[in-house]
Amino acid sequence: MNKLFAKLKKEFYSLLPPTIFFFVALHIVTLARVLMLQGTGVEVDTSIAVTIAALILAKAVHIADLLPFVNLYPHKPLVYNIAWKTIIYTLVALIIHYIERLIDFWRETGEFVAGNQKLLAGIVWSHFWAIQIFLVVLIFMYCTIHEFVHVIGKDRARQIFFGSPQRVAISG
To answer: I need a labelling partner for 98 at 20 to 30 A (CA). Which of 57, 71, 75, 117 fits?
Structure first.
């Protein structure tokens, strides 16, 4: 029982940073979407739907990090892994974003194919891609922070961000 608790605790703490990041980031995206759709009569995601999406995205990031091909460039400059992971996580976000919209139309039509056809015919592509651009930037920021913390260590990152107010020298 103690091993199970330790495993669950470790899993919880590993999911916490991406969950918090994507919770805040997706709420920012939702706010932008609300502002873009204001006055159009189009429904916007609720905070609960955004929170669920953040949990799904955080878990997808966590699972992707366990795959062997995610860290393709361990001995190259940091930018390689940041760019590679940004691409992978963006593809996951794109799929999740599309499926979220598809579910709404699927419920409306009662059929998957009809819902997909209605989505493709009725989606405002400029809004869809605007949200994707926000997500790419936010995912890039997450990957940059995540890789940076991985290189300098969690304790050092905590000291830099939350330590004493004096300047902290960053050295190898």
So the answer is: 71
